[in-house]
Amino acid sequence: MELTKTNFLSNKITYLFIIFIISRFFYLNFLNITFDNWTIDVYWQFFPKDLLENELLNSIYFNHWQAPFLNLFVGIMIKLSDHYLLIIQLIYLIIGFLSFVLIYLISKNFNFSENFSFLLSASLMLLPTTILYENHLYKEYITFFLLLWLFYSTIRILKTPNSLKYILFLSLSLSLLCLTRETFHIFWGYILIIIIQKNLNIFNKLLLFFIFTIIVMPFYLKNLILFDKFAINTTSLYEHLNQKIDYVKEMDDPSRHEKIRDITFGSYENYQKFKKKTSILYDVKINSGAEFYKDYLKYESNYDNKLLNSNTSFNEVFFEVDKYRKKDFLLVLKEQPLLVIVNIINSITRHLFTSSDYFNFTKHNADKMGYLIKISDCIKLTPICIYEYNFDWKIFYTIDGQPFKSLDTGPLNYKEKIIYSLQYTNFLLVFVYIMLLFFLIKNLFSKKDRETNIINFWLFTFIFIFSAFVVFEDGEIARHRFPFDYLCFLIFLREIKEKFLKNY
């Protein structure tokens, strides 16, 4: 990254560093924002602690459920030092600062002024949303950094073709991104390489292809050999999709969703006839746990491996679970597609929630920044900043005893659910999304330069990934979206400038 300047003290990056240090000192010491390292013990995306410590490589090899980089990173830190949690927190702070350096550099490469680029980067750096995910040990903040690093590398290669530095930057950031979030499939990586390599000489073409392939491909090949699936995540597809038919299962209670049941199935009796076609897991709550599934299905293990036999989502029983979940989802999709569509629409509303307000696992920190988040919500045109419906909030506690407020949306009626959705919708983001879609369509029918082609690729990527979130996820879409929000906003500003303010 280009961090040098003739006068160090006048360097905008130096000022960004000063602002970063002061702001983090303020948040950590005056607002008592804590680093959420307890996620290692709680989140099912992590290997069991003893396997992280003692059987890391073996667990990475038999991992079939999560992209491997997060567990590999945490496991290495554990092996390096007894103070690994402090080291991880420091690394999060470092990649946080580098992320906003990248935002500054990307903005400059979009031909915005130094002052504007500096103010934009500094403003995003101070947002409460940034602070929440910077202090949450999970994959979102790593993805955020890798996305910015990759994007910056792609636009720099366009302007400095065959620069070995940016070839290496792109190779490494692309590889790590594909190994951090399974939504970035290896085929997506190869598409980006094909687009980029048109500007490269033969040596750099081969180098880029080779580095990416040698880092990423082994994880796909070992899953193909071990589990007969060419994927990073091989077992949770239909467990996730069953979120979209949960409320259909609730129709078994005659008092639940009566009107929708009458419109779709015609009667309660017809619903019961439909239910007879479902699998033995139809009435079993999703994510019920490995040991429960093994007992319920009378499943016998095929592998003598600690990870595959652990009481986690890495257990091999989930290969069997996914078969039953597949049957149920496809049955509902075939016979009552409208019910699936309705729930996808509901997920779209959750997708547009502001990331700082809707993720219970960061709420304990968010509650400490109430007024700052209120200001942030007003900037984002989120109605909650001026109007809040009188929902019944309850106090819950994190694993380390920190209190936070949360709301159980299950008991809410349809009117209340609409109100709840609207008051947390980030309408600035809605506007940005609509405009990005408009710019993409416009770009497709106009004369394109190399930078526009790259922008179009990223816009297609956002559309694809956001669509996947809506289809495969439900309650946590806002946190999944966080790594993309700032980059989307940067591209939005770039398109505004290019389309309407080119002479300024």
- How much is the average pLDDT? 91
Distance between the termini: 27 Å
Record field, number of beta strands: 2
Share of helix, binned: 55-70%
Structural domains: how many: 3
Number of helices: 25
Global structural class = mainly alpha
Shape: globular
Cross-sheet strand order for the largest sheet:
1-2
β-strand percent reads under 5%
Could you list the spans in which at least 5 consecutive residues all have pLDDT below 50? Answer: none
Q: What characterizes the major β-sheet?
A: 2 strands, antiparallel
Q: What is the radius of gyration?
A: 24 Å
In sequence order, what are the helices and strands, one letter per element? HHHHHHHHHHHHHHHHHHHHHEEHHHH
